[in-house]
Amino acid sequence: MLTLATTTPGEPEIFASLQGEGPSLGRPSLFVRLSRCNLACRWCDTAYTWRFTGDNRPHRDDTAFERSANQLTLSEQDVAARLLAFPQDRLVITGGEPLLQGAALARLVTLLKAGRPGLHVEIETNGSVAPHASLDPLVDQYNVSPKLAHSGNPADLALIPERLSAWAQDPRAFFKFVVANPEDLAEIEALEALYAIPGERLFVMPEGIDSQTLRTRSRWLSDAALTRQWRFTDRLHIHLYGDTRGT
Q1: Total Cβ atoms within 10 A of residue 186
Q2: Each residue of 93-122: pLDDT tens digit?
Q3: What are the Cα distances from residue 55, in Å, to 48, 155, 207?
Q4: What is the mean pLDDT of the chain?
Q5: Which residues contact 175 (CB under 8 A, 6 or more apart)?
Q6: CB-based contact 239:214 (threshold 8 Å)
Q7: Coiled-coil stretches, from where to where (predicted)?
Q8: Binding residues
Q9: DSSP letter assigned to residue 175
Q10: What does pTM read for this prediction?
Q11: I need a labelling partner for 38 at 20 to 30 A (CA). Which of 123, 126, 160, 233 fits?
Q12: Cα 187–188–193 angle (5° rounding)?
């Protein structure tokens, strides 16, 4: 069984859109958003996947979500059938933290690749959870977003050395750092040096949930990326659709 986020009560967050971030930006993709996360970012724009009533971990707007309206459990067969009804040949599994459900994801992806040979599978992860042994060989690309100090997560939970080292050595893993302030850049430089993260697999992305904030931060962040030979990524879906579910 898989635990999914919802767009509206009772409707799983399964949708087709253009990938809005990272190395696949602009590609037509199919998305499934899973619920639950082991971290709690202050600026998280999908807090409905983890900040349920009774969870008092800090968040910038302090909204608490009712679990029953924002979380749905479905079988892997049901999810696979829903996904295969779409024509896209690129799947992005996002969250929440998808790798918390690694064994069930392995069963789902096995069904999907049997039903659609050649399906490209991306998993978006915060980088703190190891892939399940049966899932890892089925994944074509990892979009790894380690959480910096401004996220509010303790480093011993968010930046696990053995995991960062493993991701840096995996050519399928692309790093995507969310940046809010110029002070964040030194932290990224330190991680890049410590774990020998290749510059061609290191993206920086402005934090923001509206176009004006993204554009303002992009001005100085794009210059920083150019100087340091990092890759820059915008948040295309925010510009196109706003901060909305199912986009």
Answers
A1: 9
A2: 999 999 999 999 999 999 999 999 999 999
A3: 11, 20, 23
A4: 97
A5: 127, 144, 145, 146, 167, 168, 197, 201, 202, 203
A6: yes
A7: none
A8: 18-20, 33, 37, 41, 43-46, 94, 96, 145-147
A9: E
A10: 0.97
A11: 233
A12: 100
Give the chain's residues under pLDDT 70: none
Res 229: pLDDT? 97
φ, ψ (nearest 5 deg) of residue 123: -120, 130
Place of tokens 């930006």: 25
Structural domain spans, the chain:
2-241
pLDDT digits (tens, 9 = 90+) for 208-233: 999 999 999 999 999 999 999 999 99
- Which residues are annotated as part of the binding site for S-adenosyl-L-methionine? 43-45, 96, 145-147
Provide CB contacts within 8 A for 48, sequence distance 6+.
5, 6, 65, 70, 245
CATH for 2-241 is 3.20.20.70
C-beta separation of 131 from 151 below 8 A:
no
Binding site per annotation, positions for [4Fe-4S] cluster? 37, 41, 44
**Structure tokens belonging to residue 237:** 């879906």
| Cα–Cα dist 156/239, whole Å | 34
Distance CA 93, CA 96 (A): 10
Q: Binding-site residues for Mg(2+), please?
A: 46
CA 234 to chain centre: 14
Q: Is the torsion defined by CA of 124, 15, 38, 242 positive or negative? A: positive
